[in-house]
Specification:
Layout lengths: L3 E2 L3 H12 L4 E4 L4 E6 L3 H11 L8 E3 L6 H4 E2 L3 H10 L4 E7 L12 E5 L4 H10 L3 E3 L13 H8 L6 E2 L11 E6 L2 E6 L5 H5 L8 E3 L20 E5 L1 H6 L10 E6 H6 L1 H4 L3 E6 L4 H17 L4 E5 L6 H13 L4
Parallel strand pairs: 1-9, 4-7, 6-10, 11-12, 13-16, 14-15, 14-16
Antiparallel strand pairs: 2-3, 3-8, 4-8, 5-6, 6-7, 10-11
Length: about 325
C-alpha cells in the first residue's frame, strides 16, 4: 500500500498540502476511518462524492480540532447546544447546528452542518496540524461496511486516495451518535455509544431526549441501504435457530455471526455450520467493535447468506442492531 502513511507531524503537514489543493486524505478516529477533504471547498467535497459513489443529498460531517472553532463554521443558538458541546465534546457525538456561509453547500445541501470533535489522539493531532475544517464520510464505497482499519480502507478505495493515515484499529468500531436540538428538546437521529441517558445526565434540569426516525433529509443514512455485504443479511434470534429448517438445498455459502453465549448453548448445531463469534452479551462493546470488520470479512468471502444473531436492544445493543437492521433492509 504505497499510500499508507504513519501518524507523524511530517505526514500531517503533507496531508495539509494535499487538502489545500483540494485532494482527499483518509484519517482514523475513535469510531471509524474517514475520507476527509477541505469543508470550505466545493471542488474538494465533490471529490469525496465521486470516490465513494455517494448520493449527493447525503451530507458530510465536519470534523474540527477544538471547541473554539465551532463558532467559526456554525451558529450556537442556545444553552442546550452549548451544554452538549461543553459536556460531551470531544467524544463520539455529532451535533447539528445552523451552518455559516463559509461551509461548502456541497458538504451540506441544507442550512445545517454536522459538527464533530474526535477524541482520538491521532485524529486530534492531525486536525490540529492541518488547521482546516475537514468534511468527511466513512472511507469506503457508499453502502458498504464502514472501515475500522487501514486495510479495510485500501480494500474499498485502493490507491484512488493519495494518503491513508494508519491509526491501527478503531477503538469503537461504529459511528458517532448524531443529535439535534429542536424546540428545547434533543432528538437522537443516529444512535451510538452516547445514549439518551448519557445526554440527560449532562443537564441539571429536566430535558426531553428522544430517539427519532423523522426528518430523513437530516439523517439520510436512514434513506439508503448501509453496511451491505455481497450476500443477504438475515437477523435471527435463538428461538429462530431452533425452529428453522436449516437444510441447504441450494448449496449456498451460509455463515452465522453469533455471541459466545449462543455458541455455548448450541455447540452441536454450530459444529456443522460456518460461524464467527463477534462478542458476548456481557460486553456488547466488543460486538460493536467487531461488527464492521466481520462484515468486511464476509463480503470478501462472497457469502450468500449471513445470519446475524439478534442482540438485546439495551445500551449499545440498540446502536448495534440499528446498523444490522440497516444492512438487512432492501434498498428503496
Amino acid at each position: 500500500m504505497k499510500n499508507l502513511s504513519s501518524p507523524t507531524t511530517e505526514n500531517y503537514l503533507k496531508a495539509r498540502e494535499l487538502l489545500i489543493n483540494d485532494e482527499v486524505v483518509v484519517f482514523p478516529t475513535e469510531t471509524i476511518y474517514w475520507l476527509g477533504a477541505n469543508a470550505l471547498s466545493d471542488k474538494a467535497a465533490k471529490r469525496i462524492f465521486q470516490l465513494k459513489g455517494r448520493p449527493s443529498d447525503n451530507p458530510l460531517i465536519v470534523h474540527l480540532w477544538a471547541k473554539e472553532q465551532i463558532s467559526d463554521y456554525a451558529f450556537i443558538e442556545n444553552e442546550i447546544q452549548q451544554r452538549i458541546i461543553d459536556k460531551l465534546m470531544p467524544w463520539p457525538i455529532t451535533l447539528l447546528l445552523q451552518k455559516k456561509e463559509n461551509i461548502s453547500s456541497i458538504v451540506c445541501p441544507v442550512p445545517l452542518v454536522w459538527i464533530r470533535l474526535p477524541s482520538n489522539q491521532i485524529a486530534h493531532d492531525f486536525l490540529t496540524t492541518v488547521q482546516l475544517p475537514i468534511a468527511a464520510p466513512s472511507a469506503n464505497i457508499s453502502g458498504k461496511a464502514s472501515p475500522t482499519n487501514a486495510q479495510m480502507v485500501y480494500d474499498n478505495l485502493g490507491e484512488n486516495v493519495p494518503m491513508i493515515i494508519d491509526g491501527w484499529e478503531s477503538e469503537a468500531g461504529i459511528e458517532s451518535t448524531v443529535v439535534r436540538v429542536m424546540n428545547r428538546n434533543i432528538q437522537i437521529l443516529r444512535p451510538w455509544f452516547v445514549t439518551k441517558e448519557d445526554i440527560e445526565t449532562c443537564f441539571d434540569w429536566k430535558i426531553e431526549v428522544n430517539y427519532t426516525h423523522e426528518n430523513p433529509e437530516l439523517s439520510p443514512w436512514m434513506r439508503y441501504k448501509h453496511y451491505s455485504i455481497s450476500g443477504s443479511v438475515v437477523i435471527v434470534n435463538e428461538e429462530g435457530l431452533a425452529m428453522r429448517n436449516w437444510e441447504n438445498k441450494e448449496n449456498k455459502k451460509i455463515w452465522f455471526l453469533i455471541t459466545q453465549e449462543i455458541y455455548n448453548k448450541n455447540q452441536t448445531f454450530f459444529s456443522n455450520v460456518l460461524f464467527k463469534i463477534w462478542g458476548t452479551h456481557s460486553n456488547l462493546a466488543i460486538c460493536a467493535h467487531n461488527l464492521f470488520d466481520m462484515y468486511h470479512y464476509f463480503d470478501k468471502e462472497w457469502v450468500d447468506v449471513l445470519y446475524v444473531e439478534e442482540l438485546p436492544e439495551v445500551w449499545i445493543g440498540y446502536s448495534i442492531m440499528n446498523r444490522v437492521k440497516r444492512s438487512a433492509e432492501i434498498e428503496k
